[in-house]
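Q: Please design a sequence for this.
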């Protein structure tokens, strides 16, 4: 709207003299017409068409140019997006309840402020422009009609151009504000993000349940390996680690099970059922629990400590034998 208004103002400033001349030439035959002359309606109509055709053509070009510019600028703002759905019949738009909601919304309040601001800007521009021209306005009655009309038209065009520039400044601010508001409205709420994550990655509750089931399966398999262990090393209250070592088969002791708290108690319970020695060695138990995963060989730096435990276990078995 601002650019279209400014286009009209600048066009009138550039074509004003030529347009005023055409209008004067068009009115002169009528002003000089003698009513006593025998003038037919047809000839009078021909004079009207002939005298005002150029004026009408220029005004039509200004209107069409302004409309075209408005359409072009609007298309550029939407990146030439065509939305046929926007012109379809939607009874929700004429719903009085929804209308009242929109009327008293934050958006409507902002639009009201914009409208009032435009009125204030136009009023201030007109006031300050005319304020400096008061002396000239007082001289208009002393001028000829043509001179006063020329001066007045220049003054009007001057006010229009300044008003157009002010409206354009408001339009630039409004454009960036609406772009920011549009992008903000596109942002999803926390609940929408959660729902999207559910769609993409699955329901967290279901995934948590799946993880629990996997842990139970792994725990069950791990507990099945405890009866095969050679020794269980404990904290003794917090952790328990089960090691298996066959001299002829294994390159080094293998950690077959480990756990804390309740799992540690379960490991010790199975060890007691199968008469597997339980050795209390807190530093070694924590070292194995933190640094060795199930199914892995113990690292070389723990060979000596584990070997001492195994020697103790073998001595117990030989003593029993």
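A: Design:
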């Amino acid at each position: 709207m601002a650019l279209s208004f400014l286009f009209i103002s600048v066009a009138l400033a550039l074509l004003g003299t030529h347009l005023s001349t055409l209008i004067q030439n068009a009115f002169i035959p009528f002003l000089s017409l003698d009513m006593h002359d025998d003038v037919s309606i047809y000839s009078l109509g021909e004079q009207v068409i002939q005298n005002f055709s150029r004026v009408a053509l220029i005004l039509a070009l200004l209107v069409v140019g302004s409309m075209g510019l408005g359409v072009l600028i609007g298309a550029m703002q939407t990146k030439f997006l065509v939305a046929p759905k926007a012109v379809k019949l939607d009874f929700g738009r004429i719903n009085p309840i929804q209308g009242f909601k929109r009327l008293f919304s934050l958006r409507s309040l902002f639009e009201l402020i914009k409208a009032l601001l435009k009125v204030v800007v136009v009023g201030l521009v007109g006031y300050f422009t005319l304020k400096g021209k008061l002396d000239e306005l007082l001289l208009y009655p002393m001028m000829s009609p043509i001179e006063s009309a020329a001066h007045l038209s220049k003054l009007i065009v001057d006010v229009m151009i300044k008003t157009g520039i002010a409206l354009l400044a408001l339009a630039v601010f409004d454009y960036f504000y609406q772009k920011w508001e549009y992008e903000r409205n596109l942002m999803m709420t926390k609940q929408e993000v959660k729902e999207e994550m559910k769609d993409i990655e699955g329901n967290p509750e279901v995934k948590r349940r799946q993880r629990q089931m996997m842990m139970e399966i792994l725990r069950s398999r791990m507990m099945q390996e405890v009866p095969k262990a050679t020794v269980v090393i404990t904290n003794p209250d917090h952790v328990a680690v089960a090691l298996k070592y066959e001299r002829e088969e294994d390159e080094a002791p293998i950690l077959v099970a480990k756990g804390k708290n309740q799992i540690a108690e379960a490991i010790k319970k199975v060890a007691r059922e199968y008469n597997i020695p339980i050795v209390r060695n807190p530093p070694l138990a924590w070292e194995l629990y933190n640094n060795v995963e199930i199914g892995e060989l113990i690292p070389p730096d723990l060979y000596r400590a584990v070997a001492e435990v195994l020697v103790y276990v073998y001595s117990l078995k030989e003593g029993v034998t």
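Q: Thanks. Anything notable?
A: The first helix runs from residue 2 to 31. The beta strands are 231-234, 239-244, 254-260, 278-280.
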